[in-house]
Amino acid sequence: MQQQDQGQEPALFEGLKVLDVGTWIAGPVATTMLADYGADVIKIEMPGVGDAYRQFALAPTSPAAEINYTWLMDARNKRSLTLNLKDPRGREILHRLVVEADVYVTNHPLAMRRSLGLTYEDLKPLNERLVYASLTAYGEHGPERDREGFDLVAYWSRAGLMDQVRIPHAEPAQSLPGMGDHPTAVSMYASIVTALLRRERTGKGSLVHTSLLANGLWAASCIAQAAFAGADFSHWHVPGRLAPTRSLYETSDRRWLQLTMIRTPEEFSRLLDVLGLKDLLDDPRFATPEARLQNGTELVVRLREVIAQNTSDYWLTACRGQGVPIAMMGTLHDLLEDPQVEANGMVESPGVDIGMTRVIRHPVNVEGAPRTPLRQAPGIGEHNGEILSALGYSASDVQRLAHDGVI
Q: Does pLDDT of 167 surpass 60?
């Protein structure tokens, strides 16, 4: 556990016992967040195989590096115990851990949980105070409750995000790996913390759950709610028509500028002044916001012609000097030197050598609540002996369980 400086608050979740009984990102990362605030997280993995997410950064389709960067980022501060849950002895060990646990997090398919006797209803009699956190692709109920799915499908595609985040009639694009999983993990964390507060007040554990589909719908909700309200979408994505403040503009140094934050006629007038196009306001096609929307394609073409003549630095300086809200599309490599990322602690420097000098942190910040110093992500079954010994298993017991493929 984290050692505290004299006078420093103890870790927020010090003493909280958490079981990470899942794979990949959305469920397990919720436990990483708890571990970052001091919880003792035991990750349950298949013997000899481990979580398949261990292999993601090493796959030929991932950005190549000598370090397993995604595993080190998302599995930090945990201990690993391998258990074959298809073996009754493996489930017996898990049950003994459940008796002492505060939180159980899983994204195993619901059908698999039912077959193994690992649903909330199965485990609740072992520990009435247990918070059982369930992550599914499509929700706990309904005809697709047993259907499996990654965030590229359930969060991005099914929720309508893939359809909406494109130019009309352009080919849809896939999301980044984990782009839906990581925010869904924050929802799962919030559900767990809410249930822990309820337990503090009532003494009762509970089932909490969220899904990739629910989080995708929530991410799309500013526009998705319009569909549920019966709104008229005829002016939303009009084929062949571009909107000036929703379009992107390439500069001479091949960077892209956004004008999305221009919201008032005064700001748009100042933009045209900076671009040397103030005379466009005398053209009836562009004189009013309504006319500019109706004739957006022609206006975007004019703006792009001018913006393409100078660099991104030139336009950023010129626009900001005149109070025109403008932004440049960032790249991942820009973030390496971004002062806002550093100033706000969005990355941390490990106190131990893990092969990376900086690691991305989760986005939940509680002032005054210390985070656990980053520890190396565990190897497969690295803590088998340690964890089983604490449960009362002897060294010979551990050897026999390993020999039989239980751990």
A: yes
358 token code pair: 């900086």
Instruction: List, in sequence order, every residue forming a beta bridge with 42; answer none if it has no partner.
Output: 19, 79
Instruction: Find the helix or strand (DSSP H, E) in which 95 lies.
Output: helix 88-100
In whole angstroms, give the CA distance from residue 177 to residue 182.
10
Q: How far apart are CA 116 and CA 118, in angstroms?
A: 6
Q: Give the pLDDT band of residue 179 (cuts 50, 70, 90).
A: very high
Looking at the chain, the whole-number percentage of residues with pLDDT higher than 90 is: 86
- Encoding tokens for residue 334? 């820009």
Return all residues near 113 (Cβ < 8 A) that are at least 6 apart: 106, 119, 122
First to last CA, the chain: 25
pLDDT for 8 equals 66
pTM of the model: 0.90
Alpha-carbon gap, residue 329 to 325, rounded angstroms: 13
- Cα separation of 90 and 69, whole Å? 30
Say what the pLDDT of residue 36 is: 96
Q: What is the CA radius of gyration of the chain?
A: 26
Secondary structure (H, E, C), 267-280 = HHHHHHHHHCCHHH
19 membership: H or E segment, kind and range: strand 17-21
Rounded to the nearest 5°, which phi and psi values hold at 209?
A: -155, 155
Alpha carbons 273 and 314: distance in angstroms, whole number: 15
Alpha helical stretches, state H, 107-154: 110-116, 120-123, 151
Alpha helix positions (H), 101-180: 110-116, 120-123, 151, 161-164
Residue 407 buriedness (CB in 10 A; 0-12 / 13-18 / 19+): buried
pLDDT digits (tens, 9 = 90+) for 383-393: 999 999 999 99
Q: What is the pLDDT of residue 293?
A: 87
- CB-based contacts of 292, cutoff 8 Å, min separation 6: 244, 268, 285, 286, 299
| Chain segment 1-14, per-residue pLDDT in tens | 444 444 567 889 99
CB atoms within 10 A of CB 332: 8
